[in-house]
């Protein structure tokens, strides 16, 4: 990387005696922050792509925000979660604004379902869309709030229950949006959001919105949700591959067809174009949807959709009838005299569902893996790209001047080859900024040697006994994280009866409610799976121990993982070393990253899977983790907690 002049704006801002030191109440010089800020500044100036792994405590959000604000370019900042998005907009940007003489032109954009639709709220006065007293009460909250809100963002509504079913009936998703023809188009919260974006230099989005936008843009880079931009910064960039797979794939479910049928019914009553014939067609669509998706069984599962040709032949009548029913709905909507504007989005959705059904049932594109997921009453038919590298390369990296990818977990054994290959990123500049903490003193990694391998039938019982002993030393205050729900439940049942500390288990309450209860309950132990491995912040003594059951290799019988493994093998690669180990190393680093969140945090990390010390590939994991203190003796854990 080219050396920076010492007088660069980024260095002037972050250095000792620089701008930040003069007005930050708790200023602390961080060499990694300066290094990262200069790298981002240089990439924007030279129109180059950049990958930065910035360890916890680097101060990476300011390290990319300040150069972005100083660049004079329109830049998208894309985050992994809405929580981080809101932190940037409501905390970091106002903090910087206090000390910039010019007003900072920054806005945030979320998906349409996060915003209220004024027209739907006004129409509800005359239409029976609410069911039950709870929805009526929730509607009153929404209606009163709409009169005063400027943004129309659901997150402002603190009094509306998270579980409210009313919100979905009044949000601004495009399913029933008539666009510029709407009477409230000028006052629409989506219109206002787009206007703010056009006037902004920095636009803060999340990965889902960014790649939804990218999937809508044609080859000329037109037609997206976001205004044109010069550069994009991805925070939590390790999530990109999975998100791209969602937005450049094809998905169909019984829920989507049922939602269409419901919305056509509502609009036909509201706009008075309903007929007995339309009711019969919709009723038939309902029956065929239940019949067709019922063919995939009742049990929850996620499996490859093998033998689609044979499936179609065996169930040709119901499949053909479902396609015909969708075509009939389309024809019926098309034949309406003087149709209301609300028919247009319904017609478009109907066509999208018909196309998706044909694609997942009949297309034979080797670039996709076709699979089925059953979750409760939902049945999802999916076609996901096996390799997203060419998509990201041609649709993004070849088109945008600068892309900055950053996260605390992007490097494997100190290098970025895995991330670059998975995302099709070539000739990027790279930088590893070590964490700002003294990991050797603050954290102890313990790997018990006496446990059998995780595949051994005795592992669960012996692992649970080990967890009990560790929790006695840590006095609770722990996350116990698992790679599967089944293992979590089995260990929870054994451990919760053996310890005197309060316990919580994922699935018994919403994620945020569990976290709040954990933070508020002294000596609590939380048992959880993958969604608690990242983006969770519990600083201080409340979280003093993170226990992980085994090396987090992706489940090889997952249809998408399996297809990617086969693809690498067929191309002459070694899927275990080229894909499974690097992916697991990044995931393990994410899980352990929950523990040390500040310079005063101390704690023990436990990996119950001793393959990390006994198999040759274990060195890749050690080389990817920070330099924690290390032991294989539980007595050292006891000493650590008694210091």
- How many helical stretches? 27
Shape: globular
Structural class by SSE content = alpha/beta
- CATH fold-level topology of the largest domain: Rossmann fold
Per DSSP E runs of 2 or more residues, the count of β-strands stands at: 18
- Spans of at least 5 consecutive residues whose pLDDT stays below 50 are 1-6
* Largest sheet, strands/sense/barrel: 7 strands, parallel
At the fourth CATH level, what is the homologous superfamily of the largest domain? P-loop containing nucleotide triphosphate hydrolases
User: In the CATH hierarchy, what is the architecture of the largest domain at level 2?
Assistant: 3-Layer(aba) Sandwich
Report the portion of residues in β strands. 5-15%
- The helical percent reads 40-55%
Counting structural domains, the number is 4
Span from first to last CA? 43 Å
- CATH class assignment of the largest domain: Alpha Beta
Mean pLDDT: 90
Looking across the biggest beta sheet, what order are the strands in?
3-4-2-5-10-1-11
Q: What does the radius of gyration come to?
A: 26 Å
């Amino acid at each position: 990387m080219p050396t920076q002049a010492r007088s660069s704006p980024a260095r002037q801002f972050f250095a000792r005696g620089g701008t930040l030191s003069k007005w930050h109440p708790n200023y602390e010089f961080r060499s990694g922050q300066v290094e990262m800020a200069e790298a981002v500044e240089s990439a924007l100036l030279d129109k180059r792509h950049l990958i930065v792994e910035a360890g916890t405590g680097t101060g990476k959000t300011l390290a990319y925000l300040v150069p972005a604000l100083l660049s004079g370019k329109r830049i998208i900042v894309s985050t992994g979660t809405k929580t981080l998005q809101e932190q940037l907009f409501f905390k970091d940007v106002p903090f910087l604004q206090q000390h910039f003489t010019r007003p900072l032109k920054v806005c945030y954009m979320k998906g349409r379902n996060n915003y209220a639709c004024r027209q739907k709220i006004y129409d509800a006065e005359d239409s029976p869309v609410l069911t039950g007293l709870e929805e009526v009460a929730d509607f009153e909250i929404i209606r009163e709030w709409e009169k005063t809100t400027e943004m129309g963002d659901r997150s402002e509504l603190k009094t509306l229950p998270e579980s409210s079913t009313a919100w979905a009936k009044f949000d601004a998703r495009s399913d029933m949006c008539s666009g510029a023809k709407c009477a409230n188009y000028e006052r629409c919260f989506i219109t206002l959001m787009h206007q703010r974006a056009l006037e902004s230099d920095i636009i803060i989005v999340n990965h889902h919105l960014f790649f939804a936008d990218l999937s809508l843009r044609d080859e000329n880079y037109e037609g997206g949700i976001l205004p044109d931009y010069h550069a994009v910064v991805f925070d939590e960039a390790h999530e990109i591959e999975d998100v791209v797979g969602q937005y450049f794939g094809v998905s169909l479910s019984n829920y989507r067809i049922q939602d269409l049928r419901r919305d056509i019914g509502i609009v036909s009553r509201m706009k008075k174009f309903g007929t007995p014939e339309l009711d019969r067609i919709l009723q038939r669509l309902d029956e065929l949807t239940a019949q067709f998706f019922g063919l995939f069984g009742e049990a929850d599962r996620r499996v490859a959709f093998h033998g689609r040709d044979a499936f179609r032949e065996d169930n040709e009548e119901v499949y053909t009838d479902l396609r015909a029913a969708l075509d009939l709905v389309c024809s019926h909507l098309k034949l309406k005299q003087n149709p209301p504007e609300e028919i247009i989005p319904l017609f478009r959705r109907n066509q999208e569902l018909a196309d998706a059904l044909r694609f997942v049932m009949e297309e034979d594109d080797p670039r996709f893996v076709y699979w089925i997921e059953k979750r409760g009453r939902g049945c999802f038919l999916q076609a996901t790209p096996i390799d997203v590298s060419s998509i990201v390369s041609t649709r993004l990296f070849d088109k945008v001047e600068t892309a900055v990818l950053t996260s605390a977990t992007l490097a494997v054994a100190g290098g970025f080859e895995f991330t670059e290959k998975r995302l099709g990123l070539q000739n990027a500049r790279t930088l590893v900024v070590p964490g700002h903490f003294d990991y050797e003193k603050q954290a102890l990694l313990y790997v018990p040697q006496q446990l059998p391998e995780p595949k051994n039938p005795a592992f669960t019982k012996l692992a649970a006994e080990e967890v009990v002993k560790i929790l006695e030393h840590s006095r609770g205050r722990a996350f116990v994280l698992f790679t599967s729900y089944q293992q979590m439940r089995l260990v929870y049942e054994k451990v919760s009866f053996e310890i005197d500390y309060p316990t919580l288990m994922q699935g018994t309450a919403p994620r945020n409610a569990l976290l709040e209860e954990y933070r508020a309950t002294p000596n609590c132990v939380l048992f959880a799976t993958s969604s608690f491995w990242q983006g969770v912040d519990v600083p201080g003594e409340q979280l003093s121990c993170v226990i992980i059951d085994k090396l987090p290799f992706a489940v090889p019988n997952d249809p998408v993982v399996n297809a990617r493994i086969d693809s690498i093998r067929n191309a002459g690669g070694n899927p275990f070393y080229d894909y499974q180990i690097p992916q697991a190393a990044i995931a393990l680093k994410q899980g352990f990253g929950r523990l040390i969140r500040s310079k005063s945090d101390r704690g023990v990390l436990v990996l119950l899977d001793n393959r990390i010390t006994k198999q040759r590939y274990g060195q890749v994991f050690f080389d990817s983790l920070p330099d924690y203190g290390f032991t294989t003796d539980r007595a050292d854990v006891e000493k650590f907690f008694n210091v």
